[in-house]
Specification:
By secondary structure, the chain is an alpha/beta fold. 45% of the residues lie in helices and 16% in strands.
Length: 325
């Protein structure tokens, strides 16, 4: 109703100002005059540099196509994340990008979005429920099982394939479950003589990784290796191992090759940190949305292979170790 009362000359002026001031980008790198829509993104932990990078790249990529992306921190809490998903639905967002903090709990929010006709795309972590997973338009993430196999290969090599080892896991999250499964799969299929004596959750965080590793060392002082499902928990484990003066005895294999993980490998705190490619994940998610909006069929799932990140790689990357992924 307000627009109808604006005189034509003033409307022209307003249009000119919008064209001049808009920050939205077009695919060609110019300025877009109109925001086509809004994307709601929620991930398990925006304080983790891995997810912060994904959020930043998604924002930039979405802006190229005229979309505004709002990124929220799920705070590692399924209930908080479902509330965020409900808000996206209530506010009429055009699409949702979801990285579940809890692979089971997030099913509720996906159902609500689907019922409201809002397309949901998952990244990094999949929904656990097979039926709800069918409601997701597309998923893009690392091949976590294959990455876990790389970790198993490195553990066998670093330990000489003998001794007791422990796993620091995150059983609420499908990607981390797959890493552990891949790790165990490689050991079982390649004549491993390693004995997994315990598997405990480090919640994917450095402090909890330190606490859990401290408990493991007290219960199993003779272990020779620890596999941790991400760099924060692995570096927390290293701190516990260093405090116990067992760095010469215990090898730590991680996952992610985050900037901190890469430095950890370079400083020989971590033996390997199978590498993910978050930029590819972020760009691929946005592009899947655009293709879907244009009426194209998109793959139901896309898995990006991981690669070893060993000391030799870190030495080559030395000049770039302070950079993000």
């Amino acid at each position: 109703m307000i627009i109808k009362r604006i005189t034509i000359p003033f409307a022209v002026l307003i249009s000119f100002l919008l064209l001049s001031c808009s920050d939205s980008k077009t695919p060609g790198g110019g300025k877009a005059s109109v925001v086509k829509g809004k994307i709601g993104m929620t991930c398990m932990d925006l304080t983790n540099p891995f997810f912060k990078l994904i959020a930043d790249v998604m924002m930039d990529e979405a802006a190229k196509y005229g979309y505004e992306l709002v990124a929220l921190d799920g705070a590692n809490d399924g209930a908080i994340q479902n509330s965020q998903l409900s808000d996206f639905v209530a506010q009429g967002y055009d699409a949702i990008f979801l990285n579940p903090a809890d692979s089971k709990a997030a099913a509720e929010g996906v159902r609500k979005a689907h019922a409201a006709g809002i397309p949901v795309f998952t990244f990094d972590i999949q929904i656990d429920d097979p039926e709800v997973r069918k409601l997701v338009i597309s998923h893009i993430g690392s091949d976590n099982f294959q990455g876990g196999q790389l970790a198993g290969e490195s553990m066998m090599k670093a330990t000489g394939n003998r001794g007791k080892i422990a796993i620091i896991s995150l059983p609420e999250v499908t990607s981390c479950i797959l890493r552990v499964n891949g790790f165990k799969d490689f050991l079982s299929k390649n004549g491993s003589k390693l004995e997994i004596v315990t598997e405990l959750s480090g919640k994917g965080r450095r402090n909890e990784g330190f606490t859990v590793a401290t408990d493991i060392l007290q219960a199993h002082p003779d272990i020779v290796g620890i596999f941790a499902i991400n760099d924060p928990s692995a570096l927390g484990a290293y701190a516990a191992v260093a405090k116990a003066n067992k760095t010469d005895q215990i090898t730590i294999v991680s996952f992610d090759a985050s900037p901190a993980g890469k430095r950890g490998v370079f400083e020989k705190k971590l033996y390997d940190s199978p590498r993910q490619f978050p930029r590819k994940m972020a760009v691929g998610t946005v592009q899947s949305l655009i293709r879907h909006m244009e009426g194209e069929d998109v793959p139901k799932s896309i898995f990006i292979p991981c690669s070893h990140y060993l000391y030799e790689t870190a030495v080559k990357d030395k000049s770039r170790l302070k950079e993000r992924w």
